[in-house]
Structure formats: structure tokens, C-alpha cells
Write a structure and sequence with these properties.
- By secondary structure, this protein is of the alpha+beta class.
- It folds into 2 domains: 126 residues, Arc Repressor Mutant, subunit A (Orthogonal Bundle); 89 residues, no CATH class.
- The protein has a 4-stranded mixed beta sheet with strand order 4-6-5-7. Strands 2-8-9 form a 3-stranded antiparallel beta sheet.
- Helices cover 49% and strands 13% of the residues.
- A hairpin with a 4-residue loop joins β5 and β6.
- It is built from 9 helices and 9 strands.
- α3 crosses α4, α6 packs across α7 and α7 packs across α8.
Length: 249
């Protein structure tokens, strides 16, 4: 069994949290977000911790406070032509199995583990087993979306995300609200700061892919009324990021 690959750090209070342009974030899927947060609090209490450790030590928590089994296995026997099976959840056994093909892809591995934890937490009444293929068509789009949102909320808790975003923006002479407004208007300077500086640092801080970190700007709304960044802008940033990662021909 893998151990956590990096040293966890405590998330410290941010001295800039009193900024007059205080950022108030409200999740789109409150039930999913609240469920993920309660599970985090349970793990913190079990380890007698008063603050978050980042990146979230998901492997340690699953096999420790959560009392689940986590295995790396060959899951090819579960494939039925719908794509690679990346993870599987066995409800009765309280077991999560992750494909050995992504065992060395840390960000993807962590997200898949969190995704399966979402099934174990949210969907125990629906099926005895979930298997997640690379095309995402494992049972229904609704359950897939919920498990994905749970994974993002568990690995990138809203309060820590807001705190780190404010801190990283401040280090570039920007308030988070001003930078988000600039990116929403698709202004080049603000977009560069987000994509070249802030987003990579958020990704490293939380131990997730940049696409996962970017998704939090969609899943959390400012004052519960509007996305941090409009969906159309996020879609363009995702396409732009994917094109930058394409190997040269």
C-alpha cells in the first residue's frame, strides 16, 4: 500500500483575511460539500488536530480514521469496452480499488481515490459496486458528477481554497476579487497571473491537477449568486490549458 508521497503541512490562518474586499463563497452542491467537510472534520478529530493539513492526506485518512481498505489492483477484468476502469468501490467490503495503471500518477491517483470515497459516502444505498471508466459513463451522469464534486470538495476544502487564493493573489499585488473580475472580463494581464502563477500554485498546494483546481472556480459562487469565473471563461481556459500541454508533433 502506498504511503502519502509528500509531507503534509498545516494550513495557517491568513493575516490578510480582514481585507475589505472579503471573498464569501457558497458551493453549488451544498449537500455534497457539507458531506465532504463533515468527513474532514471527523478525520481531524480522530487525529486530534485543530487545523487542516495540506495536501489532504487522503490515503492515511482512508486507512486510518475512516477505517476503509485501499488497494492498488489490476482492474482490467472490469472493463466492458467503455474505456479503462480507473477505480472501483465495493460497498459491502468498504473497499476502494484503484487501477495500477495510474498508481504513479499522483494527482490522478488522489482524485480517483477521493472520487471512490464519494461513492462510499454518498451512494451506499444505490449499488453494491461502482466501477468508474475513463469515459465517466459508469452508471449515470448524476452520480458521476456528485462523486467528482465530492472529490474536489474533499481535496480542496472551500475555506482553505479561499485562504490560499487570497494569499497567492496578494503575493502578486492583487486582491482575489479584483483578479477574479479581471479574468471574468477575459483581460490578458489578469488571466496570465491566474494561469501562469496562481493556478499552478493552487494545484501544488492541494496536490491536484490544475483542471481540478480550476473546477473549484466553477463549483463555488461568490455570495451564492454568481460563479467566481463564468462557465464560458473556464471552458476556454480548460481548452487553452489542454492545448498548451499537447506534445509537439
Amino acid at each position: 500500500m502506498r504511503s502519502d508521497q509528500r509531507q503534509s503541512e498545516d494550513a495557517q490562518p491568513d493575516s490578510k483575511a480582514t481585507n475589505p474586499q472579503r471573498l464569501v463563497l457558497v458551493p453549488l452542491m451544498r449537500r455534497v460539500e457539507n458531506t465532504a467537510w463533515k468527513l474532514i472534520l471527523r478525520c481531524l478529530a480522530a487525529e486530534n488536530r485543530s487545523s487542516l493539513c495540506l495536501p489532504i492526506p487522503i490515503e492515511r485518512w482512508i486507512e486510518g480514521p475512516l477505517g476503509l481498505r485501499l488497494e492498488i489492483a489490476d482492474l482490467r477484468h472490469l472493463e466492458t469496452g467503455a474505456g479503462e476502469v480507473l477505480g472501483a468501490t465495493l460497498m459491502a467490503e468498504k473497499s476502494i480499488r484503484i487501477s495500477d495503471r495510474i498508481a504513479d500518477q499522483e494527482n490522478r491517483f488522489r482524485f480517483t481515490v477521493a472520487h471512490e470515497l464519494g461513492h462510499l459516502t454518498l451512494h451506499t444505498h444505490l449499488s453494491g459496486r461502482f466501477r468508474d471508466s475513463s469515459d465517466g459513463d459508469f452508471l449515470s451522469a448524476k452520480f458521476e458528477r456528485e462523486a467528482d464534486r465530492f472529490a474536489a470538495a474533499f481535496l480542496i476544502p472551500e475555506n482553505a481554497f479561499r485562504q490560499e487564493l487570497v494569499r497567492f493573489c496578494g503575493e502578486h499585488g492583487q486582491s482575489a476579487t479584483d483578479l477574479l473580475a479581471s479574468v471574468s472580463r477575459e483581460e490578458a494581464p489578469g488571466t496570465r497571473i491566474l494561469t501562469e502563477q496562481v493556478l499552478p500554485r493552487l494545484s501544488r498546494r492541494f496536490g491536484v491537477a490544475q483542471t481540478t483546481a480550476l473546477g473549484r472556480f466553477r463549483d463555488l459562487q461568490i455570495d451564492g449568486t454568481r460563479p467566481m469565473i463564468p462557465y464560458r471563461v473556464i471552458s476556454r481556459l480548460q481548452i487553452s490549458g489542454a492545448s498548451r500541454r499537447q506534445p509537439p508533433r
